Here is the input.
Amino acid sequence: MTTHYLVLSALLFAIGGVGVLVRRNAIVVFMCVELMLNACNLAFVTFARQNGNLDGQIIAFFVMIVAAAEVVIGLAIIVTIFRTRRSASVDDASLLKY
Amino acid sequence: MNGTIQAPTLEYAQLAPMLVVFGAAIVGVLVEAFAPRYLRSAIHVPITLLSLAGAFALTIWQVVKGVPTKPAAMGAVAVDGPSLFIWGTILVLAFVSVLLINDEDHFVAAAAAVPGSAEEEQALHEGAGHTEVYPLALFAVGGMLLFPASNDLLVMFVALEVMSLPLYLLCGLARRRRLLSQEAAVKYFLLGAFSSAFFLYGTALLYGYAGSIDLAKISAALGVVGGQETLLYIGVAMLGVGLLFKIGAAPFQAWKPDVYQGAPTPITALMASGTLVAAFGALLRVFWVALGGLDWNWSPVLWAVAILTMVVGAILAITQTDIKRMLAYSSIAHGGFLLVGVVATGAAAGQNSKALSAILFYLVAYGFTTVGAFAVVTMVRDAGGEAWHLSRWAGLGKRSPLLAGIFAFFLLAFAGIPLTSGFFGKYAVFQAAVAGGATPLVIVGVVASAVAAFFYVRVIVLMFFSDPAADGPSVVLPSRGTAAVVGVAVLATVFLGVFPQPVLHLAQNAAQSLFIR
Amino acid sequence: MGESITFWVLAVVSVIAALGLVFSRRAVYSALMLGVVMFSLAVLYAVQDAPFLAAVQIIVYTGAVMMLFLFVLMLVGVDSSDSLVETIRGQRFWAVLAGLAFAALLGLGIGNAVLSPPKGLAAANRAGNVPSLAELIFTRHVFAFEVTSALLITAALGAMVLAHRERAEPKQTQKDLSRARFVRFGQLGRNPGPLPGPGTYARHNAIDMPALLPDGSVSPLSVNRVVARYEAAEGTLPPEVERILQEEALSERANGHVARPLGEEDGK
Here is the structure.
C-alpha cells in the first residue's frame, strides 16, 4: 500500500508543478503551490507509517504551520499588487525583464 | 499513557546569539504596538543595532570559551566552528545593512496606499513611514542565523521560511518605482514558495530513505539501506533544487536580477550579503554532513551547475544596462565561484577544511564589498530616485571623483584584482579546487573571471573617461549611516586585500573543527 | 481491504480534483477543487494512523487557508478569469510535457524503490497519537516549535504593513455623507437618492433587466455592473444596455473620471 500512497503524492506534486508553470493568475499559481505542499505532507505521513516513527507526522504538522503563515504573507502581497493594477495576472506584471 | 514528559534541555548559552536577535525582533513588534509614532524610529534603531552587536559579542564569547562539539537544543541546532564563523559574518553584515536601512528615505510611506493616489501623497506629506522594517529585518537575520546551523532538515525548512517571509515583504516596500518593487515581491514570493516545495519533497524522500531527518542519521544510513537508492537520488536532487534556488545558481537564477532590482536598495544589500552567506552555509552542511558519503554522485552535477552559473552570470552581466541588475548578475557569478569551492570538498579531512576555509573567507570578502557597492548605488540619484541606468553613471568620475573612485575600487574587488579582498578569496577557492582535482573547473572559473572583469572595467571606463551628461544625476551627501557603511566596506576590502592573514587564520580555525557530524 | 477501497476512491477523486484545480478557467472553481483535494487527504491521513493530522488538516487547511483564499478571490473579483493567450509560445505544451516527464520520473523512481512492509505506528502510538506527538514536539523538536512563533509574528506584522491603512482624518458620519451628497447634487446635479432597482417599469422582473424610465428608455443607473460584465462576457447582454454602458464609459473617460468599481459608487 505504501507505494500506492507515494505514487499518489508524486502525481499530486507533479500536477501542482504543472499548474505553477501553466497558470497565470497569481492566486491560482499560489493554490498550486499549496497543492504541492499537501502532496509533500501525504508523503511524510506515509513514510511515518513506513518507518514506524512519528517524525514524519511532526514535519507534516510543521508544514501546516508554515503554510498558514506563508498564505497570509502571500495573499497580502497579491492583494497589494491587485490594488495597484486591478489584475492578478502574472503576465500583466511585466515591468521586470531581461 | 505514562503522562510525564521529560523536560527538554536547551543550551541557552550556545543559542544565545539567535535568541537575542529574535528577542529584539519581538521587542520591536511591541514598540510598534505601544510607542507613539514619532518615537518609534528613535527606539528601533538602537534596539536593532545593539541586539546585533550583542549577538556578535556572544558569538565571540562562544568562540573564546571553546567551540561546542555536540549539537544543542536536543540535537536541533549545531553550533560548531563554521556555524560560529558564519554567524559572526552574518551579524556584522546585517549590522552594516541596518545602518543603510536606517536611511528611511528608501521605504514606502504607506504600503497600503495605491501608488500615485492622494492617500499616498498625504502620507508622504505627513512624513509617515513603516518602522516595521526593523523587526522584520531582525526576523530575517534570525532565520539567516538558524539556517546554516540547523542540524536536521525540519529546522532547516523552518529556518528557510523564517528567513524568507520577511524578505518577501521587505522587497515590496520601496518608496520609489513602487510597481517594480511590488512585482519583485510577487515574483520572489511565488518562486520562493515553489522552490521551498521542492526542498520539502526532497526532505520527504530522504526521510523515507533514512527513516530520520537528522543530518547525521541520514549520513549513517547511506549505503546501509538497500533497494531504495531511487528515493535517495531523487530526494537529494530535489533538496538541491531548493538550496540552489536560494543561492541563485543557474538554472535557478531567474529571480535574482528582478528581485535585486525591485527591492529597496538597503534590502538588496542585506539579501546579497546575508542570505547568500546563510544559504551557502546550509548548502555546505547538507551536502557535507548528510550526503558527504555520496559525493561521487552529486559532485558531477555540482560541477555542471557551477560551470553554468559562472558562465551565465558573467555573460548576461555584460548585456545589462542597469546597475542593480548588473550587480545581481555579478552576485550570480560569484555564487558560481563559491560553488567551485563546494565541489572542491573531498573525502580527506585536510582537503575539506582547506576548501571550507576558502569558502568562508570568500563569503566575508564578497559580503563586505557587495554591501559597499549597493551603498554607493543609494547615493547616486536622479530626480525620481536612484539613477540605475548605466548611461546615467557616465562621467561620474569627473563630477564626484571620490565616490566614483570608491565604486571603481569595489568593482575591482569583484573582479579579483590583487590587493583587493576579492583576489585572495578567488585565489583561496581556486587553490582548494586545484588541490581537490577540479582543475578544469578552475580554468572555467578563471575564464569567467576574465569575462566578468571586462564588464567591471567597462563601468569604470564609463565613469572616468566619458563626459558627464548636462542633466546627470547628483550625488547626495550621505547620511552618517551610509557614510559609515561605505567606509567600513572600503576598509574591509582593503584590509582583507592587503593583510588577509588574520581572517584567513580565523577561517582556518573555524574550518578545522569541521561541521559536527 | 477497507483501506484499499478508501484509497482508490479518494485517489481518483483527489487526482481529478487536482487536475480540475489546474485546468479550470475560473479561480473560484480552482479554490473549491483545492478544498476537495485537502478533504480527501485528510481522510487518507486518518486512514494512515494520523488522526491528529487529519483534524488539523481540516481545521487549518480547509478551515483557515481555504477561507482566506476565497476571501481574497472575492476581494480581487470573482469574475477574474485567466486569458488563454500564451505569452511565451509553446510554453503550455512544454510545461505539460515537463510535468508528465517529472511525474513519470517521480512515479517510477518511487514505484521502483524496494520497500519493506510498513513497520506501522502501533509502537510509536502506544500512548495515543496526540500524546506521542506532543512528547516529540515538546522535547526533540521544541526548538523548531519555538521558532515557528517568529513565522506567525512575521505573518501578522506583514499583513498589517501591507493591508492596514491608518485613518488620517476623522471618520465621516452619516450626516457628513448626506451633506456631501447634496452638495454634489447642487454642483453636478448627481442624483442624491438611492439608485433605482432593476426591473422597475420593465417588462421583466429579473435583476439583469434594466429599469425603464417613464419615457420608455433604459436607465443605465439600474444595471448592476458585475452582472453586466458577466453577461457581456457571455454575450447575453441586451444590445441597448451594452450601448448605453459603453457611451457612459466613453463620456466618463472623456471627463477624466476613471470608471469606479461597484461598491464605491455614490448614493448607496
Observations:
- The longest helix of chain A spans residues 55-85.
- The CA atoms of residues 46 and 58 of chain A lie 12 Å apart.
- Chain A is about 80% helix and 0% strand.
